[in-house]
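DEPOSITED CHAIN:
***
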Amino acid sequence: MLKDALPEIKTETLPGPKAQVILDRRHKVVPDAIGCPYPCVISRGEGAMIEDVDGNLFLDWVGGVGVLNIGYSQPEVVEAVKNQADKYFHSMMNVTTHEGYISLAEKLCEIAPVKGEEKKAYFANSGAEADENAVKIAKAFTKRPNVIVFSGAFHGRTLMTMAMTSKKAYAVDMGPFPDGVYRAKFPYYYRRPEGMPDEALVDYYMDSIKDVFEQCGAANTIAAMVVEPLQGEGGFIPAPLEWVKAVRQICDENGILLVADEVQSGFCRTGKMFASEYWQEVGVQPDIIATAKSIAGGVPLSAIVARKEIMDAPAPGTIGGTFCGNALACAAALKVIEVMERDHLADRSMEIGQKVMDRYHKMQEKYPCIGDVRGLGGMVGIEFVKDGKEPDPDLTKTIISYCANHGLLVEGAGTYSNVIRFLAPLVMTDAQLEAGLDIMEQAIAYGLHQS
């Protein structure tokens, strides 16, 4: 079965002949801005494996950029969507209520670790929509105009979330952007100021927030601070818990809502159903969670969860949308969560992540080009550098290309494009994991030899 197979390239070159024809067609009709460096055209997928149109087998460690925690073509999820499709595809919640939406909202209110006893949830279609909606309801609740985001952040490609996103390579020629989005420094400890001791780090990064209050928008004008518990595009950087506690305190002191952007880190990716459960263990809860990616196993869906009084603040008609909470997506999400809980995918994420970290640390001892290894559970980043800590994006690009041409799909990340992310489906077999780690190490050795 494909889900148990190992990577195998059967064509003499990549892309194979059938894939090349389709890629040529793509080039003619799909905008160049929607780039794709991988020589692969998918025919089918099972578990963590892809078979392309030429019969090549790829192990996927990108997982649709975190969408496929439960893997490709999970049979129970497929069946749940089919069963719903037999009844109806769509029912807009402003016109007719459908029970799947209610059941999913009830489940998310049960499991999401946000502040408050009574919670409410609603749905959108993408991570960017979830983040933008979180900001909208924070503004409606606080009656304040501004938000604080952080260096390295990625929140989406709508106009608002482009403004919130740090790396402006994602926003070339797209301005002007909305006002009232201010940026503080995210605690990227690996790239701390040279010589700064550990005990000074929290104060240093908290001073950056206070500088925003001083120079950009007074604290009483800030509706929300939006934090990724583990930055994705920024380089797979976990938010240190001591810093999260300090952020929660400054929010509480100033009437600011704390938003956890769990678009990429939710649904067992970090070893918990939500990464902000790690916050909860040290006494911190966000006011709002925005999440998406793996919520519905690949069917477009995102969610926003908060306590009742926050959720009831927006005026009628200011939130929602035609396809938000689509019946097929809700059916998929309910089954995804059921399977994740039943099959203990959060535990599997921890197990996979530990094996990856152990192997990466051994590579780090062997290859000086590995500057840092970090992550939570099965969400791991490996950062490549030259002498000292100078980022090495060229080596990173070479490693990604080598991996793809040997049957392993990995993706880059990071402010300096020198991090490779691990977002593999959590249903990957141990044999597949070992095969992928072997290819990764071969790629690093090859990249160093080429440089």
About this structure: The mean pLDDT is 97. The chain is about 40% helix and 15% strand. Residues 345-366 form the longest helix (22 residues). The longest strand covers residues 370-376.
